[in-house]
Design brief:
Mean pLDDT: 93
CATH topology of the largest domain: Rossmann fold
CATH superfamily of the largest domain: Glycogen Phosphorylase B
Radius of gyration: 21 Å
Shape: globular
CATH class of the largest domain: Alpha Beta
Helix content: 25-40%
Largest sheet: 6 strands, parallel
Number of strands: 12
Low-confidence stretches: none
Structural class: alpha/beta
Number of domains: 2
Oligomer: single chain
């Protein structure tokens, strides 16, 4: 299939995170494909796109409000997707985590949806708690959640193929969308940028890396390290930083944001990486495993796919916050990195490489066409 007959549709290009890296790899694999998004700003467009994405009329509104936040334009996003110019393509690949599957109403071509997750904030009231900005904001978010659920449910039956980024996401798609046929293709991990160094000795600390935001539950890791009385290094920043500092014991060090080189060195030297929250997939743990470092993770979400107990790390049982803290603390007190083989961990992580992702997505598109 010629590249110029394929359209790639993304949720939005407002900042670069995991879903943008997925779109970047799709654009690298199909360099002549046209890329679409309702709104975009230069800082949110990955370098791997060969040309700027096509935006919609909504981008003018986004620019008019100074690109300060995309929240004010969210109620108009479904309409922007439905009015995209997606005719005369052989297939459309959609990158979805909120409204992007509405693009199915803008084309007669087969639509393949790569689902980072159904809109968890729309389906799970607990994720909306405290995010609404008072009673008025909470009411607006609740109303928008109802819109998001209706949009996802209306689009789901029309999608030709649904691809989930983990088994946990595939289960959500079955539960919330009523589609139990989702394929699982794990997202691309930079296994070339995260590599082992056998000359580096393990040091006596655990690592927590990534954005410090409530849903990732960094507080669990910080509390557990204090309870276990073990050294913890926290590399990352976010709105949960102050709360984590208040919970930290004397052996916890907060580094804030660090360079890639510093982060790579931390992964290589740590006894293990901690993953205390429920992730849709979880890129950071696989990056750590790509350096040969084991992972201690909560046994839920994407970790079920990525952490192999006894081979690449261990899984902590779910439960109440206090129970999970106790379990992580016990795991850290007794954890022995010497029981894990760096080369075996690295070999497992290579199965999540960018090349593997692109190959699997080519197979998905080929099967549709």
């Amino acid at each position: 299939m010629p590249d110029d007959r394929l359209a790639l549709v993304h949720e939005r290009f407002t900042e670069i995170a995991g879903s943008e890296h997925v779109m970047e790899q799709l654009a690298i694999h199909w360099p002549s494909a046209e890329v679409f998004a309702p709104i975009a700003r230069p800082e949110g467009v990955p370098a791997g796109l060969s040309r700027p994405p096509h935006t919609t009329w909504l981008n003018g509104v986004y620019n008019a409000i100074g690109q300060r936040s995309y929240a004010p334009v969210l109620p108009m996003v479904p309409l922007a997707f439905r009015r995209m110019r997606l005719q005369n393509y052989d297939a459309v690949v959609v990158s979805h985590h909120a409204f992007a599957t509405q693009a199915v109403f803008a084309t007669d071509a087969p639509v393949i949806a790569y689902v980072h997750s159904p809109a968890r904030w729309a389906w799970d009231p607990e994720l909306r708690a405290g995010e609404g900005g008072g009673k008025a904001g909470a009411a607006v978010l609740t109303a928008l959640s109802a819109v998001a659920r209706r949009c996802e449910v209306s689009a789901a039956p029309k999608l030709t193929t649904v691809v989930a980024n983990s088994s946990a996401v595939a289960q959500r798609i079955a539960d919330w969308w009523g589609r139990d046929d989702a394929l699982v293709v794990h997202p691309p991990v930079d296994t070339d940028g995260f590599t082992p160094d056998t000359s580096v000795e393990r040091e006596d600390f655990f690592l927590l890396a990534g954005r410090l935001v409530p849903y990732k539950r960094p507080d669990i890791a910080v509390r557990a390290a204090a309870a276990a009385d073990v050294p913890l290094v926290v590399a990352g920043d976010g709105r949960a930083m102050d709360a984590c500092r208040a919970l930290a014991g004397p052996k916890t060090t907060f580094l804030g944001r660090v360079s890639h080189e510093e982060l790579l060195a931390l992964h290589r030297r740590a006894r293990a990486l901690l993953m205390p929250g429920i992730e849709d997939f979880g890129i950071v743990p696989v990056e750590s495993m790509a350096t040969g470092t084991p992972v201690i993770a909560l046994g839920a979400g994407g970790a079920i796919d990525t952490v192999v107990p006894g081979k690449t790390g261990l899984l902590v049982a779910t439960g109440s916050d206090d129970a999970v803290v106790d379990s992580f603390a016990t795991a850290m007190r007794t954890f022995s990195p010497a029981e894990y083989d760096r080369s075996e961990i690295r070999s497992w992580a290579e199965g999540f490489s960018r090349d593997h992702f692109r190959s699997r997505m080519q197979e998905v598109v080929d099967a549709v066409l």
